[in-house]
């Protein structure tokens, strides 16, 4: 398995064995598994991460910054492209070429699909896709897999109900593709009509469940999922009144689910999860976000060939 110098653009670029290796490496950074207080600061000391955020972010940007600094890297970059020379008309490709000269790894979020691939085609150093519009968000998928593995001790023979807009939700696209690599999983994509999973992301284990939002609890009771993966309505990629598309979950929803079923969400959540669910032991979305730190420490260490 070779990770040094590698781009992380599309979850389908990684085999099941490679994904498992990344998850195993993340355990080395997770205090749940590593009791030693030894610092990881020397892993990538002297290396620089450039974070190029053309679209807003809290978790991905800040956890990458934290992960990079925890393994000793310096960080450069921007989250306001208008404050760069693109404001003067410099192209995306030239901007990437310049940042490539100043850093050892590029982390890019951009509203356009395949923009991370465009960056990787120009850059000499590894490019990590931190979300390319409605297409994919592979490092989120890796932390989702890590969270499921940490909870159930396995990534196969699981039923996952993905609740929300399947059409524009990049983390659902990539999670479905990733779970297909493991055996016996079944994905139910619960969505309003017209927001089903695009054909290019539909795997053989995926089933569209197109329902009115009032039928959510009843539908979940019939599916009996191990994981409910909720998502916000990505209004930045949609037009018109989006409120009619929101499925709402609350503490009441738990009555319709198997006792062991966990609730995941990549966050941010807006109206789709009532805060009264937050203290339920099976609501693990904040722990899920924390896992992003360990996955990103592992990925940076791997692509730099330092672990
Ligand atoms: N999950 C996620 O990508 O969150 P941010 O948009 O805050 O980075």
What's the overall average pLDDT, rounded?
95
Which hetero compounds are present in the coordinates? phosphoric acid mono(formamide)ester
Q: Give the strand tally.
A: 9
CATH first level of the largest domain: Alpha Beta
How much beta, percentage-wise?
5-15%
Q: What is the gyration radius calculated from CA atoms?
A: 19 Å
Strand line-up of the largest beta sheet: 7-6-5-8-9
* Name given to the CATH homologous superfamily of the largest domain: Aspartate/ornithine carbamoyltransferase
Query: Per CATH, which architecture of the largest domain?
Result: 3-Layer(aba) Sandwich
Order of helices and strands: HEHEHEHEHEHEEHEEH
| Low confidence ranges | none
Supply the number of structural domains: 2
CATH fold group of the largest domain: Rossmann fold
What's the total helix number?
8
Main sheet record:
5 strands, parallel
What percent of residues adopt helix (DSSP H or I)? Answer: 25-40%
How does the helix and strand content classify structurally?
alpha/beta
The general outline is: globular
In words, what does this structure look like?
By secondary structure, this protein is an alpha/beta fold. It is globular. The mean pLDDT is 95. The chain is 31% helix and 15% strand. It has helices spanning 16-27, 59-70, 92-102, 115-122, 138-152, 170-180, 216-223, 285-303, and strands at 48-53, 74-78, 105-110, 127-132, 159-163, 186-191, 206-210, 227-230, 262-264. The strands form 2 sheets. The chain has a 5-stranded parallel β-sheet, sandwiched between helices. The protein folds into 2 domains: 11-136 and 290-303, Rossmann fold, CATH 3.40.50; 138-288, 3-Layer(aba) Sandwich (Rossmann fold). Strand 5, helix 6 and strand 6 form a beta-alpha-beta unit. Residues 57-60, 131, 137, 140, 266-268 line the site of phosphoric acid mono(formamide)ester. Phosphoric acid mono(formamide)ester binds next to helix 2.
